[in-house]
Each structure stands twice: as C-alpha cells, then as structure tokens.
TrEMBL record:
<dbReference type="Pfam" id="PF03107">
    <property type="entry name" value="C1_2"/>
</dbReference>
<dbReference type="InterPro" id="IPR002219">
    <property type="entry name" value="PKC_DAG/PE"/>
</dbReference>
<keyword id="KW-0479">Metal-binding</keyword>
<dbReference type="GO" id="GO:0046872">
    <property type="term" value="F:metal ion binding"/>
</dbReference>
<keyword id="KW-0862">Zinc</keyword>
<protein>
    <recommendedName>
        <fullName>Phorbol-ester/DAG-type domain-containing protein</fullName>
    </recommendedName>
</protein>
<dbReference type="InterPro" id="IPR004146">
    <property type="entry name" value="DC1"/>
</dbReference>
<dbReference type="InterPro" id="IPR046349">
    <property type="entry name" value="C1-like_sf"/>
</dbReference>
<feature type="domain" description="Phorbol-ester/DAG-type">
    <location>
        <begin position="14"/>
        <end position="68"/>
    </location>
</feature>
<keyword id="KW-0677">Repeat</keyword>
Length: 245
C-alpha cells in the first residue's frame, strides 16, 4: 500500500501536512488520542495527525460488525457523548460511526490488526474477553487481545491507560518509584502463562499450553505498537517491554 509523504487535509486546509517519524508522544488533532511513530504534521502550526487518521478513508467495514457500514466523521455526530466500542473511551474527534446500528470506532481502533504476529508470537483481537483482563481484573465490555492458549487477556482500553501513565512518568519526571509501581500493575505475559502451565502440567493439554508460553512470551509489546496507530513504532518495544519480561 502506497503511503503519501505529503497530504492536504480538510481540517487543516491552510498548509500541507508532511509525513514524519517521532519517538516523542503527541496528541492527534484528529481523533484527540495519543500517538507515536509516523504522523502527518504541520510544524508551523504544531498540528499533528496519526498516519491512520490522516489517511482515513471516508467509509469502512469491520469483521466484528458485518451488518455495519461505518462513515468517517470529523466530529462526533449527535448531541450525546459517544463512546468507542473498541476501547470504551470517549469520542472527542474523528470517529467511524454506523448510522444504522449506532456503533462507533476510533480510526486507530478500527485499524487494529486481527492478528498480531512478530514472527514468533501471535495475539488475537477479540470482541469480548474469555477470562479476566490481566490489568484491571474485570470482564467489562471492550475489545481485547488474547494469547493463542486463551489464558492471557488484555483490554485495549487498559493498554491505552497504561501508555498514558507511562508517558506521563517518562516525560513529566515523575518519581522513579511511581514508574516501577506502574510497571508492576500488569502481570507479565510469560509469568502468567508459565504459572498457568505449572497448574496444568499434569493435566491434559499441558503441552499445548507450554507451546503457547513459548509463542506468546514477548508478543504483548506489539499490542502497544498497534494501539499507537503505527505498528512500526520502535519506542513501543521500550514502553511495552516490561509487560513481557
């Protein structure tokens, strides 16, 4: 797929936007969500768009909502507050909305890969959790990524919250003890799967779970890249690395 190095956009008509890469977190002026990696930017106006938001097509479909036709809106339609059905966060800017069914998706959420695969590990995007989220401990609504053996679930919303907290700690010089505290809130993927394997080591299917441990050990960090709107974001490996230690 061809990526334009420079674009014009209706919400910033005064200047063209240039594609650039940054390892410094930014706030997208389209969807109002955090971003990192590739973005379309006007340095003169300090205006930024996720690459996904800048190149968002006017209409899309999604495999989770096969009866829906989503249309891109630059502002949330209607008077009531809208919530993204993927991450359960408030809609503050760009949104894909289905008039018929009422579903809403942030552009970056709509663009999340169904399977995250870095060559060794697989995580699967799911409409609902199969077990409690390993960050919040709940089974609330919202999409999640799930390990192949289904023993590790992580809300898309929880990863977003963790990213914001991590960035605030890194860029606002928060106490290092606070950073360490945040880094222990999500049980490590490897540890969780190994414990799961230990409990079931004498039971049927233990070998399958063991294989899952090996495959999913470091995969959680690529969730971070996908949610940021840029699967190539190198900084995501740093931000998300502690999750897979």
């Amino acid at each position: 797929m061809k990526i334009d190095k420079e674009i014009s956009h209706p919400i910033h008509p005064q200047h063209r936007l240039k594609l650039e890469y940054t390892e410094i977190p930014f706030n997208c002026d389209g969807c109002k969500e955090a971003g990192i990696g590739y973005k379309y930017s006007c340095k003169r106006c300090e205006f930024d768009l996720h690459k996904t938001c800048g190149a968002a097509p006017p209409t899309i479909t999604h495999p989770f909502y096969r009866k829906c036709d989503f249309q891109l809106y630059y502002q949330p339609p209607g008077r009531e507050m809208r919530i993204c059905d993927a991450c359960r966060k408030d809609v503050l800017g760009f949104i894909y909305h289905c008039k018929r069914c009422g579903f809403d998706l942030h552009p970056c959420c709509a663009n999340l890969p169904q399977v995250l695969d870095d060559g060794e590990h697989n995580l699967y995007l799911c409409l609902k959790l199969s077990s409690s989220c390993h960050r919040c401990g709940g089974k609330g609504a919202g999409w999640c990524y799930r390990s192949q053996c289904k023993s590790y679930n992580l809300h898309v919303s929880c990863v977003k919250e963790l990213l914001v907290e991590s960035w605030q700690a890194m860029y606002l010089n928060v106490d290092k003890n606070k950073v360490r505290e945040m880094q222990t809130r999500i049980p490590s993927l490897k540890g969780t799967l190994k414990n799961h394997h230990h409990v079931h080591r004498s039971g049927k299917g233990g070998g399958k779970v063991s294989k899952c441990c090996e495959m999913a050990g470091g995969a959680v960090r690529i969730i971070v890249s996908a949610i940021l709107g840029d699967p190539t974001a190198l900084i995501a490996a740093v931000v998300g690395g502690f999750m897979s230690k």
